[in-house]
């Protein structure tokens, strides 16, 4: 049995929008038309793709699996249309960026926006592992990540290097110093991001190599939470130097005794690197790297 293209398109539109009403409006179709197409797809295979809850819908487990496939399908269709229909002029279009820090992406976005004012952008922030997953799952077009990658499916270039620094509450016992060796972490409480964060990965690796054992670890889910926890006295925080913002409640400390330099990379799926929007973003990054 051949899968109905219209049924898949209707399903994808509803899954993406979260409701039949929003999907109908986005696709300029009537809601009954979409409902009929989705129901025909479900009936043809004797499955349920959505749980209906009033005007909202929720994907069933099968629907979630199908949505992963239709995302690839319709992303490829959009790419083909973009390539053939001339958005290479970049007079319009939408670029989805996933970044592990807004700090590292804004310069390239500002440059691209100035050159192509008709473009729109969306930016999501996650840890280094999450943003790579987003380009692999076709959720994002490009990723800014501190995680180097040798996967042949991924194309990447180095954007910049940054150093990790420590910071503490202004009344912390180490606040009288401007720099500390890695050995100073011994017996100290530390505050770090969740696993998947390159900041955590690097500092834990350096501590292990130096055979330094901190006391307690407080794990939090965002940079803002790290900052708040450190200011409240929960321990030593670690962050990229470019991300640290001066605060009278915090003391910045340079780290010594190990290599704390970390690269930041721009990445995309290798087969998408020649798409006009993606290619142009990489060109903006290259100009920043070269200082032009």
UniProtKB/TrEMBL annotation:
Residues 3-60 form the HTH lysR-type domain. GO terms for molecular function: DNA-binding transcription factor activity; transcription cis-regulatory region binding. It holds the Pfam family HTH_1. Keywords: DNA-binding, Transcription, Transcription regulation. It comes from the Bacteria. InterPro entries: LysR_HTH_N (IPR000847), LysR_subst-bd (IPR005119), WH-like_DNA-bd_sf (IPR036388), WH_DNA-bd_sf (IPR036390). Belongs to the LysR transcriptional regulatory family. This is LysR family transcriptional regulator.
């Amino acid at each position: 049995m051949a899968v109905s293209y219209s049924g898949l398109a209707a399903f994808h539109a509803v899954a993406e929008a979260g409701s039949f009403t929003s999907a109908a409006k986005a696709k300029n179709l009537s809601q009954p038309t979409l409902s009929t197409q989705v129901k025909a797809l479900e009936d043809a295979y004797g499955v349920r793709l959505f749980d209906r809850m009033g005007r909202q819908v929720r994907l069933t487990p099968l629907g979630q699996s199908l949505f992963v496939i239709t995302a690839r399908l319709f992303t490829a269709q959009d790419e083909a249309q973009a390539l053939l229909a001339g958005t290479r002029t970049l007079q319009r279009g939408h670029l989805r960026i996933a970044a592990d820090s807004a700090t590292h992406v804004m310069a390239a976005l500002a440059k691209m926006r100035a050159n192509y004012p008709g473009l729109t952008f969306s930016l999501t922030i996650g840890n280094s592992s999450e943003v790579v997953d987003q380009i692999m799952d076709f959720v994002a077009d490009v990723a800014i990540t501190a995680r180097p990658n040798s996967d042949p499916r991924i194309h990447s270039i180095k954007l910049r290097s940054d150093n990790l620094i420590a910071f503490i509450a202004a009344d912390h016992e180490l606040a009288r110093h401007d720099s500390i060796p890695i050995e100073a972490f011994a017996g100290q409480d530390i505050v770090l991001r969740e696993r998947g964060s390159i900041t955590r990965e690097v500092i834990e690796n350096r501590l292990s190599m130096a055979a330094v054992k901190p006391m307690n670890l407080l794990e939090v889910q965002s940079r803002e939470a790290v900052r708040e926890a450190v200011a409240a006295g929960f321990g030593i925080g670690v962050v990229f130097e470019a991300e640290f913002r001066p605060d009278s409640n915090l003391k910045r400390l340079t780290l010594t005794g190990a290599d704390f330099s970390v690269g930041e990379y721009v990445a995309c799926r290798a087969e998408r690197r020649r798409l006009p929007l993606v290619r142009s973003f990489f060109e903006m990054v290259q100009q920043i790297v070269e200082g032009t």
